[in-house]
Amino acid sequence: MKASSAVYEVLHLRIVSGKLKPGSRLSVPAIARELDVSRSPVREAVMGLVGEGLAQETHNRGAVVTRFTPAALVSLYEAREALEGMAARLAAPRFGTDERQRMLGILREHDEVARRGDFLRHIEVDAAFHLEIRRTAGSPTILRMLDEIQAQVAVAMRSTSVSGGMKQAVEEHRAIFDVLVTGEPEGSEQAARRHIHRLTGLLKEGAE
Ligand SMILES: [Zn+2]
Questions:
Q1: Mean pLDDT: which of 2-6, 121-125, 187-191 is highest?
Q2: What residues have their beta carbon closer than 5 A to ion ligand 1?
Q3: Cβ neighbours of residue 78 under 8 Å, at least 6 residues apart?
Q4: Domain count within the chain
Q5: Could you tell me which residues come within 8 angstroms of residue 190 by beta carbon, excluding any fewer than 6 positions away?
Q6: pLDDT tens string 56-85
Q7: Are residues 146 and 200 in the same domain?
Q8: Phi-psi domain of 102 (left: phi exceeds 0; alpha: psi -120 through 50; beta: other)
């Protein structure tokens, strides 16, 4: 693996998992020292993160982990709604026994997590559900675009205080699942869109 890719993987994981919080500095010399690599692969990795919207350049502090504004989060969700809908549409006819089993496991855990009220775990299980759909869709372009959006969403969720609605998310996931297992593309797309659309609405209220 190239040094810059290895550095990228480390930083990406720290940002998406929330170990590096929005607004944290990504100091090239400090990271190079810590990971015991030269500065150029670190610079390259940071540039990659900036390109994906996970970091942003500042005037005098170098790059920092992106702090999403409420309006930026709404814009992410509008794109997400269209892409999640298309992913579900493509996934429906490809949804077999393995997918069904994995999805049932995710739904069962999500139920428990919502009952416990564990919001951080909810973000992870929710992400696992959507990952399963876009992987099944079989479109490399949609997979890549939604991976990027999902990473930004994970960071943005930590910049805002949008929480709650966990039980409703589980119900909507079940509704998406129920259509997916029938293999019906149109209904699957609508169910996925409805779910993301409701979240977009909540975010808009918060952004006003
Ligand atoms: Zn969801």
A1: 187-191
A2: 126
A3: 200
A4: 2
A5: 85, 179
A6: 999 888 999 999 888 888 999 999 999 999
A7: yes
A8: alpha
pTM: 0.85
Rounded to 10°, the helix 39-51/3-16 angle is 50
Non-local (6+) Cβ contacts of 69 within 8 A are none
Same domain, 120 and 50: no
How much is the average pLDDT of 105-128?
92
129 CA distance to ligand 1 middle (Å): 7
Q: Are 81 and 196 in contact (CB under 8 A)?
A: yes
Cα 89 vs. chain centroid, distance in angstroms? 19
Distance 150 CA to ligand 1 centre (A): 11
Shared domain for 128 and 178, answered yes or no, is: yes
Here the tokens at position 101 are 């089993």
Statement to judge: residues 88 and 191 lie in one domain? yes
Q: Which domain holds residue 125?
A: 70-207
**157 with 84, same domain?**
yes
